Amino acid sequence: MTENSRPTPYGLTDEELALFAFFREFWEGFNALPQLHPSDADEVAFHLHALSRIIGMRAAHRAHPDVVPNRSGTPI
Predict the structure, then answer these.
(1) Disulfide: which of 19, 31, 37, 61 matches 68 by Cβ 3.0-4.6 Å?
(2) What is the 3-state secondary structure (H, E, C) of 15-26?
(3) CB atoms < 10 A from the CB of 13, how many?
(4) pTM of the predicted structure, to 2 decimals
């Protein structure tokens, strides 16, 4: 977290929210491209959802570190 991040221990940080905004921008930009393969949009959606789950789990860890452990042992 940077100095500009919200100081609350729960929820998403400003940096994490910015990543979600980037994912949306990426999705919209990708969908504006001509479709080259029928499964491309599904594949992009699958991977953006996976990335979103990773970011979301950071907030879950901060809220419940006893339930959602972090292998490195460092607080996130």
Answers:
(1) 61
(2) HHHHHHHHHHHH
(3) 20
(4) 0.77
- d(CA 70, CA 20) in angstroms, rounded, equals 21
- Amino acid type, 64: H
Quote the DSSP letter at residue 71: T
Question: How many structural domains does the chain have?
Answer: 1
Query: Range of 70's domain?
Result: 1-76
Region for residue 19 given its phi and psi (left: phi exceeds 0; alpha: psi -120 to 50; beta: otherwise): alpha
User: What is the pLDDT, as a whole number, of residue 67?
Assistant: 83
> Cα angle at 5 between 28 and 46, to 5 degrees?
30
Q: What is the pLDDT of residue 7?
A: 46
